[in-house]
Amino acid sequence: MQNDILTKKDLEYVWHPFTQHATDASPIVVTKAKGCYLYSEKNRYLDAISSWWCNLHGHAHPLIAKSIYKQARTLEQVIFAEMTHSPAISLMEQLVPLLPKGLCKGFFSDNGSTSVEIATKMAIQYFKNQGIPKNRIVKLENSYHGDTFGAMSLSSGSFTTTFDSFLFETLTLTPPYPGKENQSIEAAEELFNNNADIAAFIYEPVLQGAGGMKVFNAEAFNQILSLAKKTGVICIADEVLTGFGRTGPMFASSHMEEQPDIICLSKGLTGGFLPLALTVTTQEIYEGFLSEDRKKAFLHGHTYTANPLGCAAALASLKITKSERCTVQRILIENYHKQFQEEHGHRWPRCEVLGTILILDYPDSLKSYFSELRNYLSKAFLKRGILLRPLGNTVYVLPPYCVSLNDLDFIYSHLIEVLCQIPQ
Ligand SMILES: *Cc1c(COP(=O)(O)O)cnc(C)c1O
What we know:
Order of helices and strands: HEEEHHHEHEHEHEEEHEEEHHHEEHEEH
Strand content: 15-25%
Bound molecules: pyridoxal-5'-phosphate
Helix content: 25-40%
Radius of gyration: 22 Å
């Protein structure tokens, strides 16, 4: 179909995510993608946000594509209760040695929000099964854990206000942002020492993504995790964004010494090819569900749990992630970002680098996700052939690991140009 016909039919038939259809521009029809580039009929766009943070090794990577193709010709999908398969087993076998210590039992689902729902339900039921009255959950200020009702309850952003009266109650802790470390630790002491009914503490380790790409102090956060663990709270690390090397190490939890009891993985899990998620927990939590009583089992599952195609993609992606070439490439990106930060960081109120991610704040009196300026910037970058989506007054560069230094130079130069010409 022709481009203009597709655009017309898109408007007729399709409802897009996070889109105000009354005012937003028509979406770009992407016809193909390769490496870091998305192609439309006439233009190409550098995917500087890894297509909502999920692409790791570039689009249409031949190794991952081949792995999916081979799997599709062998076993495409099978019920995962009473049945199992090699791609799921191999994936867990290969992941466990890389995961934070002690995490060994993987529960599959299909997106980040469900991986969080599962972690939370596991934590609540773990105590319920033993008759221990712990049922409250602590979250962080500015957190984002997904868009389903449970995940919204655990988030604290401007996306959820419409549904506030439908969300379950949580306790909120301010993360140890730079300069606020002691206040945060003191608040955590107060919280964990005085509330014996806390079941779980959920957090995005070190980097809070959708909440504004906020970075907090790992050392101070380690003390907070220590406090939580001492009081018997299940610590849930939501590494849906930070997993698979985004922040430098394979998992952002390794910025801390204290390790989580449950980890949530999704975005990069299949290298950005297919929807798949994992909630991985300790042997101890798993054993809390073993009983003669069926009701004590974890009665949760999704139709496409552990889809073999997703697992095959994840196995191929993991092989690439573990390669020396990928590790070197991630270090190269980080160093290049840091060089940019040194040379140009002074131009903005905030310029931070965390692993492969570069984060900038620009002055915007509205500062909100709903600011007009963010739409203006987003369009300005697209016009220049770069896909960047500012969050409030924050712009971040989160490229696939195969990005070249030339591509990064291209992004940097347009970042400077566009952000220095902001109409006030
Ligand atoms: C994106 C994201 C989620 C939700 O994942 P979906 O696949 O969009 O449901 C949860 N947690 C974090 C930290 C995320 O970045």
